[in-house]
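Can you give me the bound-state structure? Components:
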Amino acid sequence: MNQNLSEKAKGWYLQNIDILSKRLNGSSKNLLSELREKSKKKFLELDFPNRKNEEWRFTDVTPILKHNFIPSILIDKTKFTPEEIKKYLFTGFDFYLLTFINGIFEEDLSDLKNLPNGLIAGSLNKILKDKPELIHDNIDKFSVEQNIFNALNSIYAYDGFVIIADKNVVLDKPVQILFLNGNNENEVLASPKNLIIANNNSQLSVIVNYKGFGDKNYFMNSTVDVFIGESALIDYYKIQDENDDSFHIEKIYAVQNSKSIFNQFNISFGGSLVRNDINSKLDGEFTETHYYGLYLAQDNQHVSNYTFIDHAKPNCMSNELYKGILDDNSHGVFNGKIFVRPGAQKTNAYQQNKAILLSKDAKINTKPQLEIFADDVKCTHGAAVGHLDEEAEFYIRSRGVPQELAKSILIRAFAYDVIESMKIEELKEQINHRIFERLHRVEFQNNLS
Amino acid sequence: MLVIKNLHANVEGKEILKGINLEVKAGEIHAIMGPNGSGKSTLANVLAGNKGYEVTEGEIWFEGKNLLELEPEERAREGLFLAFQYPIEIPGVSNATFLKTAINEKRKHLGLPELTPKEFLDLMREKSKILGMDDSLISRSVNVGFSGGEKKRNEIFQLLMINPKLAILDETDSGLDIDALKIVANGVNVFHNDENAVIVVTHYQRLLNYIVPDYVHVLSKGKIVKSGGKELALELEEKGYDWITSDELESQNA
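Here's the bound-state model for the whole set.
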């Protein structure tokens, strides 16, 4: 990528800051305006990464920079009715619902009836107006760091989801968060800044559901900070299923306190460029962290998964299982870093990533990175890349099953251990179904009816 | 039912089958015996249509159809079944769903309606009872976590469910203890009648005590070097393979 393109893109986004500031003129100063000033400085210092940058070696961001995306706060909202958004939701089970159109909260499209005492779920923008003290200490603590996309997120952060569970609150049903992105007239930048706080002994299940609409290209550039208190548990389902030509970059940063459990599912159904950065800092003893990933790509799509598990304290366990299914000319990346700090003794860290290539032109880069600075640890990793097993395909066909269906059976079998680890039964079948829809393949359903 | 003429086949460029001739009629049980590397499993895989095996010469006719022109699934729908030496594990797909798919694909081909869930469950109960299979094995993923014996039993369960015209058993006896062997053999005997046929591919005579063949063929270096009745199997058990395979070599060289 040439320097000009980065400069041009930076110029575009900086020019829009002035328009945004004018537009917001009159609103009182708040955490976000302070953050905007701070991030603007960082944004000026940094460049958009090129492939000489180790963290972006496999991800070419040039296609994003060629577009002039307009921050969603600066364009007219697309109106939806509650009826119209139903088709974008995961259904068949009870949930609380938060809906965001291009990263901006839509109260009328949300359902927060009967939230239990001690649970806050809603819009960052609203909470900043009503009760900023609730999030003052937590907003933007980690996710900016040195990444220009995260700085860009902070500059245009206007809204996002906030979920806060008080001590001992156990959520009775999941919170589903719908991010519906796109537009029919403009190329839009959605820039939500999101926050989850699970205080001590609380338990949360969150489904973050990314969908696209409209004809125009868009860029979803998001961050999520997650704080997990002592003995708290979060089941976090990220399910990215957006327009084929969309761009999606998100950084999730979770900090775990002692005895907490974090189950992170990262399901990507593709887009023109999807980049998931998922990070956990294990900042207390006896924590458990499970990362499950499943990613699909077809045509010329690119899906990158960068995971980073930071074992900062002793006696923690992390287990990571990623599966990729790549068709046509698509390109997948798995980069899994495990960092065991000095003193983080009795660490158990496991990592496994597997990918199947459904065509001869699909490509995968995998890179495990184990950096271990303690001596009493158990740490294993494994990677396997291949095509669908021909012997297995022959076995299935020899029972009278057509070749295409035999391949679908093997695809389902490949994705099985990731999907089976999910705790919401109805979600499993809907995700299985979507795999075949996305790959344009005949569906194999594992039921007798 | 099955006619094999001068069949030659390669695996990875190496000729394994060097001119097999064999005819199997309805109602018959044939045993194909032979030492390791003689081409027994190759023959079984070629019949079922495994793409890893290349037929270079010869013909195979099955129920009047040219088998070599058919894909593996078409062969299955025409009534051919191979019980695998090494059955494959399929996580996340239950035995029941798998078999329902297989049976309904075949019925579709034959112009029959799909089985109703009740018909299918009744059929499963009837057939699993013959093999003394636990209901849990049926609801579990295909062969996942099965012992070697359970996998072989599951192959015969599939055989009974699919009910083909010709069953080829590829080393179904390997890895079975005597009790499992009897159960598996009983399953095959329940399957067998005047209208279907069985080809038992095996290294040892043991299984043939329970599945009694009408014909025994000895395969050596890619050819059938001797054929006879069931007593030939006993003779092989007693004397081993050397006396036949070396005789044959001498006569070839002569």
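A couple of observations. Residues 250-254 of chain B have pLDDT under 50 and may be disordered. The two ends of chain B are 35 Å apart (CA to CA).
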